[in-house]
Design goal:
This protein has four helices and eight strands. By secondary structure, the protein is an alpha+beta fold. The radius of gyration is 18 Å and the shape is globular. The longest helix is centred in the first third of the chain and has 21 residues, at 5-25. It has a six-stranded mixed beta sheet, with helices on both faces. β4 and β5 (123-124) form a beta hairpin.
């Protein structure tokens, strides 16, 4: 399976742009840019599913499948599969119960998600820059250091006052990641306007592939 970060960025941007139009039609007091990060995950999963992929949330990293309890181990925000196929259960692989079509972890795309807004309902987000850098680097490390997966990346969703702010900040993040030794490709980035309700007038979707 050949994965395209551009295709994934297109899918997420299309889904979120459709949600922005829905917010406008409903004359919502707050748009989805006021959601916290976890509340955005279902919207992102729906957008990926609408593009014909599988979008499996909170899946345990395959490098942690050896742990005896399924509640143990690091989890990935979203695992994208071709044709909406499920992930192959490691406990069933090569058994009589492994007959149904499924995707091995090496064929899936493991995607960590980070969403940061420049403005919140209460006003400017004071930790915007800090939140974009430190926690995002930790998510990159999870994808990079897993010993099994071969396709993975980071999805960053930024809500900013202008597209220029997002462009600058994503470039700064990419430089910081490279300087720290993370093998991160230049991102596939898509931006679209938002109705400014709390200070954010642009949504930017950026998918960074990890080597």
């Amino acid at each position: 399976m050949l994965w395209s970060t551009a295709d994934l960025a297109d899918a997420v941007a299309a889904g979120l742009q459709a949600r922005a139009r829905q917010d406008d039609l409903e004359q919502a007091v707050y748009g989805f840019d006021a959601f916290d990060e976890l509340a955005l995950h279902p919207l992102i999963a729906e957008a990926i599913d609408a593009a014909g992929y599988g979008a499996l949330r909170e899946q345990r990293y395959p490098g942690h499948w050896h742990k005896s309890k399924k509640s143990e181990g690091l989890r990935c925000d979203l695992v994208v599969t071709p044709d909406r196929l499920p992930l192959r259960d490691p406990d069933l692989k090569a058994t009589l119960f492994d007959a149904a079509p499924a995707v091995d972890p090496e064929q899936a795309y493991w995607l960590e998600v980070k969403a940061v807004a420049q403005h919140e309902p209460a006003g400017p987000f004071r930790n915007y820059s800090k939140e974009l850098l430190a926690p995002v680097m930790a998510d990159l490390k999870k994808v990079w250091t897993d010993g099994v997966i071969t396709h993975g990346g980071l999805l960053v969703v930024l809500f900013t006052q202008t597209a220029a702010v997002a462009e600058h900040d994503l470039a700064a993040f990419h430089r910081r990641a490279i300087d720290k030794g993370y093998p991160v490709y230049p991102p596939a980035t898509r931006s679209f306007p938002l109705t400014d309700r709390i200070g954010n007038a642009c949504c930017t979707v950026s998918v960074f592939g990890v080597r």
